[in-house]
Amino acid sequence: xxxRVILCxxxxxxxxxxLAVFAGQHPGPDTAGSAGPVVKTASxxxxxxxxxxxxxxxxEIVRILEAxxxxxxxRVNIPALRKHLIDMxxxxxxARTKIxxxxxxxxxxxxxxxxxxxxxxxxxxxxxxxxxxxxxWHVRAEPLGDGDLLTVTSHDPGEVAKIRGLGFMGVxxxxxxxxxxxxxxxxxxxxx
Length: 192
What we know:
Elements: H1 3-23, H2 53-67, H3 78-94, E1 96-102, E2 105-111, H4 116-131, E3 137-144, E4 147-154, H5 157-173, H6 178-187
Antiparallel strand pairs: 1-2, 2-4, 3-4
């Protein structure tokens, strides 16, 4: 089979995969009497997007919880996940940062006022606990009166360059832990 045909087939499959995954299962009034939820897709005239990123994130988590027979609904805590997502928004949009290069990495002063300040304290403390030791990084958050001091270092010169290139938000989003972390908060397995 020519390489172009294989490549085109792979590209089509890759483009179609999100449609299959994000079509999702949405139980609703039209599922009465059926064996399970009806799958609604764009072709059925139903919107696929939740309309706002926090709604979409929470909706995805709820679908995962619904699909799992192991979900203990008495422990589920969607309000805690909502609070965490609000904190993420506050830190991403309203925190101010001053980055200083130090031997082996960076020291970042992260400050804010109003609702941003407690969001900084919660987010950076949790992030430091999660990331410390991963990728050979040493991550520490120290509370300050107006924010936190985040220190990220490594003994590996390649990681030092990466840390410096990532800056504050890059360090905050680095790795693939956010989805698992959100699910753990929603399941009630992780206090927030």
